[in-house]
């Protein structure tokens, strides 16, 4: 964001997501929380540990009978062993907007239109979401973004525009609940340019997920161009919950023309134990023939972590 937009989003989101209107607001519309998380892992016999802290506040304020103001702020601070104990922080969410019977319109640092779709398979604790990070408009979040979202019955529609000068673009997404246990979705996202390449990038995607009791199965297929290179990508995810436990398996694949250092090709297995607000998890990623997702090298990875949410 530029300084003006950042200041505006920060000020308005703070106003909406605090109890400044305590006398007229239902406090059930406001929430504050966060998480503290640490994890470490072995990559090709090299160990690295990580720490992450998130703090957030979000809420709604009824302006009149038909309009609600909405806003969210979330900050994250991270530290890794490889960064010589340096702590970096950034704003994950800082947006404000309005919610009406005709949809919700928000502006700031927030999800893109297709984030709802990519979340079909970005469900693992560690090893998922690798294939949708090369295009600003299809990444999980983006700065200076306008997002419109509408849900009507079994249909959900999202449209977004990225207004930052050097990475302008946007996307659309349509999802439909075929049955109570099956949802399908299609989306498109494109970015005119980015910091590293003058070439445009775009992606077409189809996704589906099946949920039945404690079982989840989802898939995502993508095709398009990244910085002028054609690519194909496939994600798949399956999980099963039993009691306070979850087991999952995920598969991530991406192949881009003339870009072997961007190849993703692995299968990962994870186990999580969830005790109230505490989560303990571990995972093992098996690098297949062309995988370079472990820091540009073909290597298996083992991860172990814990998270406390509040």
Task: Trace the largest sheet across and list its strands.
Answer: 1-2-3-4-5-6-7-8-9-10-11-12-13-14-15-16
* Structural classification: mainly beta
Give the C-alpha Rg: 20 Å
| Helix share bin | under 10%
Quote the beta fraction: over 45%
The run of helices and strands is HEEEEEHEEEEEEEEEEE
Q: List how many beta strands DSSP finds.
A: 16
Question: Can you walk me through this structure?
Answer:
- The protein has a 16-stranded antiparallel β-barrel.
- It has 310 residues and is mainly beta.
- The relative contact order is 0.13.
- The protein has helices at residues 3-16, 115-118; strands spanning 30-43, 46-62, 68-80, 87-100, 103-111, 141-152, 155-162, 169-179, 182-191, 201-212, 215-226, 229-242, 245-256, 264-275, 278-287, 301-309.
